[in-house]
Amino acid sequence: MIEIERLTKRYGDTTVVDDVSFGVEEGTITVVVGTSGAGKSTLLRMINRLVEPTSGRVLIDGQDTRSIPEDDLRHRIGYVIQGYGLFPHRTVAQNIATVPRLLGWDRKRIADRIEELLDLYQLDPAEFATKFPHELSGGQQQRVGVARALAARPELLLMDEPFGALDPVIRAKAQDDLLAIQRRLRATIVLVTHDMEEAFHLGDRIAVMDQARLIQYGPPAELLTRPAEAFVERLVGTADRPFRLLSLAKVEDALEPGLAEGEPVAASGTLYEALSRLMWCGRQDLPVADGTGSVIGRVSITGILAYGRSA
Ligand SMILES: Nc1ncnc2c1ncn2[C@@H]1O[C@H](COP(=O)(O)OP(=O)(O)OP(=O)(O)O)[C@@H](O)[C@H]1O
Hints:
This is ATP-binding protein. This protein has helices at 40-47, 70-76, 92-96, 98-102, 107-120, 125-128, 138-150, 168-185, 196-202, 220-225, 230-237, 240-248, 271-281, 301-310, and strands at residues 2-11, 14-24, 29-34, 55-60, 63-64, 77-81, 156-160, 189-193, 205-210, 213-218, 265-266, 285-289, 295-300. The protein is an alpha/beta fold and 311 residues long. Strand 11 (265-266), helix 13 and strand 12 (285-289) form a beta-alpha-beta unit. Adenosine-5'-triphosphate binds next to helix 1.
């Protein structure tokens, strides 16, 4: 569990992060989203102390990061930035081995870990381990950057616009790969983006920042159904891709067993219509009826969002 408590950063008279608090559960992804200059990167860098907070604190499993020596902190918290920051004169394997080496892992353990991570990312170790960064595509460099950050099983992975430099198709694939790997390794991630679609796709929870303040923190469904401010509503409104996806999918695609109260929705209707109905009537779930009018299960807001994410 990572606890961010009243973190504040001031440069002179300007407050760039203002009294921000939230908690990150182990094994989840929290996405920090907001407009340019909102203070997202500064917040992230205060978590690993690349930026020293003016006030407030960060606890990792109850331990104040100020009491952890800086080197240890860098090993316990992985960090991925947009340019991937790979060492150009080191091979893929050497790049991934960076932190395990510093930690004094033996050769076999390092070699096994490199192989495991390259396998996870579907980069054939025989082909890729000895390549240099300039021999890789942007998408491959990005994956190696994440593999390197994950190498020593950090307690937390910080990612600052990790997919910012990728074109849309590769970006979508990189997001899916990250989700799959995160679920598999149960990694805890805090990721910064200005892309609301990315936030909805990846976030178990979303932290919305505007002008140095955290204005909402909650699961994606909550941002949709209970936006804290007009700003969140506008921001959510820009994420039309999930809605387009939902208007292509049928209610029966997200059918769940069990009963629900209210007027049934048709199994053949779209998930977009079902979501609108759910939001309109303020329910978490509704019954689903087939063509003959018999109730065959239920559909829920969380089920629809889960479908939207996996689509
Ligand atoms: N070292 C610094 N000295 C003075 N001001 C700074 C410093 N670092 C950041 N700032 C200011 O703090 C504000 C927040 O910057 P930050 O990079 O955290 O925002 P951001 O939300 O990540 O923006 P972007 O999405 O554009 O990267 C900006 O106005 C920036 O100019």
